[in-house]
């Protein structure tokens, strides 16, 4: 799933490539991805691209006074083309969900795609990005100036959930998902099951510092890369997430996994849980 660093890189790439250009045609190939109908997506046609912004994991392309807001969900992506096919795309079973062709003889533009059978990609055309429910309920951005140690401490006060779930809650912090929450907690040497309300002052300060450093480092690693290379860059930069069974790059212990109904987390027992493996609820049920 694209998270804050990848969406930030997408926003920067598109901002550079769309600046000053007008939209010629918009093709809504997968109608199920459209979450708004007024204005229609065709209202973007003829409008000039005025900028690209990120809200958490939402991508906002500002076109002619309107906003094309994308949430890429788990398997969505944006693919740039210096020359799109001349033939308009047909609705079908492929990954293409939306095509945006720019005005000009070069035929440049971008496709929004979604792989897999589960379709959760969301496309909105709105007059104000806050009309998108997911944007309206976002918490502070971890890379913004407003995200201070005091603000973070206030977010955790009285929070009785496990810290892993708190970091992933978009209404608490915008942009952190499953992968980077694993990376952040590993760097902070903290158990994902630790209750947020029970963090010591030193642990809160350490976690705050690691959040900013981990995300900023990931953003910088992706700077200047082509869109097609961003996914590989993310995977290569992860130290524990998705690396079950591999040695921890810090201590050499074996990275473990806890599975849930639709996701899994990875962690290092030595670095994060005092050497004790966490209970894998899915495995425990199978053994009963």
From TrEMBL:
Q: Which domain of life is it from?
A: Bacteria
- Look up keyword Disulfide bond and say if it applies: no
Query: PROSITE patterns in the record, alphabetically?
Result: FPG_CAT, ZF_FPG_2
Does Transmembrane helix show up as a keyword for this record? no
- Cofactor(s) it depends on: Zn(2+)
This enzyme catalyses: Hydrolysis of DNA containing ring-opened 7-methylguanine residues, releasing 2,6-diamino-4-hydroxy-5-(N-methyl)formamidopyrimidine
Residue ranges of domain Formamidopyrimidine-DNA glycosylase catalytic in the record: 2-93
Please state every residue range assigned to the domain named FPG-type. 239-273
Q: Which residues form a coiled coil?
A: none
Q: Which UniProt keywords apply?
A: DNA damage, DNA repair, DNA-binding, Glycosidase, Hydrolase, Lyase, Metal-binding, Multifunctional enzyme, Zinc, Zinc-finger
Protein family (similarity comment)? Belongs to the FPG family.
What's the name of the protein? Zf-TFIIB domain-containing protein
Origin species: Streptomyces nigrescens
């Amino acid at each position: 799933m694209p998270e804050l660093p990848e969406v930030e890189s997408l926003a920067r790439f598109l901002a550079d490539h769309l600046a000053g250009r007008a939209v010629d045609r918009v093709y809504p190939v997968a109608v199920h991805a459209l979450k708004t109908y007024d204005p229609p997506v065709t209202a973007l046609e003829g409008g000039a691209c005025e900028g690209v912004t990120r809200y958490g994991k939402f991508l906002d392309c500002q076109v002619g006074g309107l906003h094309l807001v994308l949430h890429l969900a788990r398997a969505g992506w944006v693919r740039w083309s210096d020359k799109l096919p001349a033939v308009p795309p047909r609705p079908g079973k492929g990954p293409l969900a939306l095509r945006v062709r720019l005005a000009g003889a070069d035929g440049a533009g971008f496709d929004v795609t979604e792989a897999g059978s589960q379709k959760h990609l969301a496309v909105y055309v709105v007059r104000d990005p806050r009309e998108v429910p997911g944007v309206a309920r976002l918490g502070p951005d971890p890379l913004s100036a407003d995200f201070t140690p005091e603000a973070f401490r206030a977010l955790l006060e009285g929070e009785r959930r496990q810290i892993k779930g708190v970091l992933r809650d978009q209404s608490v912090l915008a942009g952190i998902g499953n992968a980077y929450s694993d990376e952040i907690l590993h760097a902070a040497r903290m158990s994902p099951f630790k209750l947020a309300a029970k963090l010591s002052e030193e642990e809160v300060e350490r976690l705050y510092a690691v959040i900013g450093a981990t995300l900023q480092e990931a953003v910088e690693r992706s700077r200047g890369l082509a869109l097609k290379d961003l996914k590989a860059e993310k995977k290569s930069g992860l130290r524990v997430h998705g690396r079950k069974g591999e040695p921890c790059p810090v201590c050499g212990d074996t990275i473990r996994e806890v599975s849930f109904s639709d996701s899994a987390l990875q962690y290092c027992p030595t670095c994060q849980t005092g050497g004790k493996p966490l209970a894998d609820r899915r495995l425990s049920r199978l053994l009963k």
